[in-house]
Automatic annotation (TrEMBL):
A single GO molecular function term of this UniProt record: monosaccharide binding
EC number, as in UniProt: 5.3.1.9
Record's keyword annotation contains Isomerase: yes
Assigned protein family: Belongs to the GPI family.
Protein name per its UniProtKB record: glucose-6-phosphate isomerase
Lineage: Archaea, Methanobacteriati, Methanobacteriota, Stenosarchaea group, Halobacteria
Catalysed conversion reaction: alpha-D-glucose 6-phosphate = beta-D-fructose 6-phosphate
InterPro entries in the cross-refs: G6P_Isomerase, Phosphoglucose_isomerase_CS, SIS_dom_sf, SIS_PGI_1, SIS_PGI_2
Natural source organism: Haloglomus irregulare
Membrane-crossing residue ranges in chain numbering: none
Keyword Isomerase belongs to the record: yes
A GO-annotated cellular component: cytosol
Pathway annotation from the record: Carbohydrate degradation; glycolysis; D-glyceraldehyde 3-phosphate and glycerone phosphate from D-glucose: step 2/4
């Protein structure tokens, strides 16, 4: 099997509570067909948001590689947040570059100091990413990184690449300093931009297979355009059943990949699902987890807790492996005959079966390998799933208005303008317990 697959078996009404009956799937597929028309029309017109699903066609890996060709580096430091960081971290980890790709996606002074002290700044490329070009955390970190390079005697203008929109402070800085600059594609919200320069620049600098990532995305696009039903397109199968389970009470979605190299993918998925579908009082709450690790922390809840969750188990069909040394120590000898990969696969199947035995809905997602084409396809299919779920929910999938209130309040608190939200901060009701 060379393609990504989605197995809905353990989410069907015969197996799970909540679950979706075969009849309900048939009826739902009529709505999927109508949504598909809206989605493909939006893609054809490069409509806002829908344009994201056309990215594999628009993204030129060669042009990205050419833009960063002069940036010789052992490490990349991405300065960006949300969709301007999570896609790149997901791609780099899947390409085995996680130890050389670092992300500053918070403004924690202790962590920022630690990272800047640890990095060989003279061998580091700074990758500054912001679609709006105005995000406070990203701009503040960029100023801090520039100063740290100045203090280290490193010319940051020689080691910085920018990806941003057509306008804004970052675009101005790039033009003034003559920095290599790439564009966030028009009509693509940050969380849907992994298959563009936003997600691919760090891997390009570090010599990763970005052409393979785009090719994986292109295969997903081809299958989407050739399909239109939840019964023949994996992304739609996932999106439609996630939607149907939410309607039936599964208001939490736990993403459980069984590969360390896919842990950032669970983070990326959390933003995609939360920021796209969490509106109008709707939306599933994402939970990030990792298999087999979180079997020993979260599984009790997933199996023994409320029936309000969809658990998605993700694994590659093939992976490099390591033998477990033989031993005749009682209680351990059975392990000596296996490999770590076999143990991980046994854990995957056992956890999946344990959820089914408890009638807890779960979906299996398998990709051939965690590599360029594999991660490109997985990202694309989940984006398509999210776009479909948004159509079925009837929400504005591509906007995130609720995040602006807090940004205005923070800016006002820092003297960055008059914002009523900043005043509301001072009106907090307090009922403090503890302290003196
Ligand atoms: O790329 P930008 O404009 O810096 O935004 C970063 C992130 O912040 C958000 O706007 C949320 O605040 C996300 O949608 C986005 O991915």
């Amino acid at each position: 099997m060379t393609d990504l697959t989605v197995d809905l078996g353990n989410a069907l009404a015969a197996e799970a509570r909540p679950g979706v009956s075969e009849g309900a799937l048939d009826r739902l597929d009529d709505r999927v067909a109508r949504a598909h028309e809206t989605i493909t029309a939006g893609m054809a017109a490069d409509g806002f948001g829908y344009a994201s699903l056309g990215l594999p066609e628009r993204t030129d890996p060669g042009a990205i590689e050419a833009a960063v060709a002069d940036l010789d580096a052992d490490h990349v430091l991405t300065v960006g947040i949300g969709g301007s960081a999570l896609g790149a971290a997901t791609v780099s980890a899947a390409l085995g570059l996680a130890d050389r790709h670092h992300t500053l996606d918070n403004v924690d002074p202790v962590e920022t100091r630690r990272l800047l002290d640890a990095l060989p700044l003279d061998r580091t490329t700074v990758n500054v990413v912001s679609r709006s070009g105005t995000t406070a955390e990203t701009l503040a970190n960029f100023l801090v990184v520039r100063e740290a390079m100045d203090e280290a005697g490193v010319d940051w203008t020689e080691r910085t690449v920018v990806t941003t929109g057509a306008e804004g402070p970052l675009r101005t800085a790039a033009t003034e300093q003559g920095l290599p600059a790439l564009s966030v594609p028009e009509g693509v919200p940050g969380r849907f931009s992994a298959l563009s320069a936003v997600g691919l620049v760090p891997a390009a600098v570090l010599g990763g297979d970005i052409e393979g990532v785009v090719r994986g995305g292109a295969a997903g696009r081809e299958a989407l355009l050739a399909g239109g039903s939840l019964f023949d397109y994996p992304g739609y199968a996932y999106g439609a059943v996630a939607y149907a389970l939410e309607q039936r009470g599964a208001t939490v979605t736990a993403m459980l990949p069984y590969a360390e190299s896919l842990e950032p993918f669970a983070e990326w998925f959390a933003q995609l699902w939360a920021e796209s579908l969490g509106k109008d009082g709707l939306g599933q709450t994402p939970a990030r987890a990792l298999g087999a690790t979180d079997q020993h922390s979260q599984l009790q809840l997933y199996r023994g807790g409320r029936h309000d969750k969809l658990v998605t188990l993700v694994r590659p069909r093939e992976r490099a492996d390591m033998a477990v040394p033989a031993t005749d120590v009682e209680g351990m000898s059975y392990l000596g005959d296996a490999t770590l990969g076999e143990l991980l696969d046994a854990e995957f199947e056992a956890t999946e079966a344990s959820l089914a035995a408890a009638d807890q809905p779960n979906i299996r997602v398998e990709l051939p390998r965690v590599d360029g084409p594999g991660i490109g396809r997985l990202l694309y299919e989940m984006e398509a799933a999210c776009v479909l779920a948004g159509e079925l929910l009837g929400v504005e999938t591509f906007a995130q208005p609720a995040v602006e209130w807090g940004k205005r309040a923070a800016r006002g608190l820092l003297g960055g303008g008059e914002f009523p939200e900043a005043e509301a901060v001072a009106e907090k009701t307090t009922r403090v317990v503890g302290g003196e």
